[in-house]
Amino acid sequence: MFPKFQILSSDKISREFQKREIHDFESAANYVRHLPYGRNGDKQNIATVFSDGCGTCSTKHALLKQLAIENDQHDLKLMIGLFKMNQVNTPEISSTLQQQQLEYIPEAHCYLKFKQSILDFTKQNSKPSDFINDIIEEIEILPDQITDFKINYHKAYLRS
Q1: Residue 58 in contact with residue 150, Cβ under 8 Å?
Q2: What beta strand segments (E) does the chain contain?
Q3: N or C: which end of the chain has fewer CB within 10 A?
Q4: What pTM, to 2 d.p., does this model score?
């Protein structure tokens, strides 16, 4: 399942996609998927994904959710999922986990949901199966909640 809609809005994020000759959600998602993974200079302003030419799971998915909002598409949900980041789904942390004698570290990840399908555009080869079996809990958020709210949510879980 994948949202199918034309970008018809004249709001900020829609205009940024239109400037790049991107006129439908599927093309927008593919554009975002192919941007490199990288921290944005200003996470409070998701349009920096365009100027920075990169994004994180948070900024990329918040950008696509905002695009859906601007085009009156309300079935697309922005999610934070806490998942068990372990040596299988994230091999690059294997030595740290072994040194600390940990099975996993709870990690917060942003992604989209559309009619029960999980969509992950974080990296070119990202797919829900990378983390779906390790989800501890998930909540729906709004694009402006990817900064302080996400951090506080993650910290509160770690404390508990």
Answers
A1: yes
A2: 76-85, 105-114, 117-119, 135-141
A3: C
A4: 0.94
d(CA 48, CA 26): 20
* Closest of 89, 79, 105 to residue 158, by C-alpha: 105
Determine the average pLDDT of the residues in 82-101: 94
Radius of gyration of the chain (CA): 16
Cβ atoms of 157 and 54 closer than 8 Å = no
Helix and strand element counts for the chain (H, E): 6, 4
pLDDT tens profile 19-70? 999 999 999 999 999 999 999 999 899 999 999 999 999 999 999 999 999 9
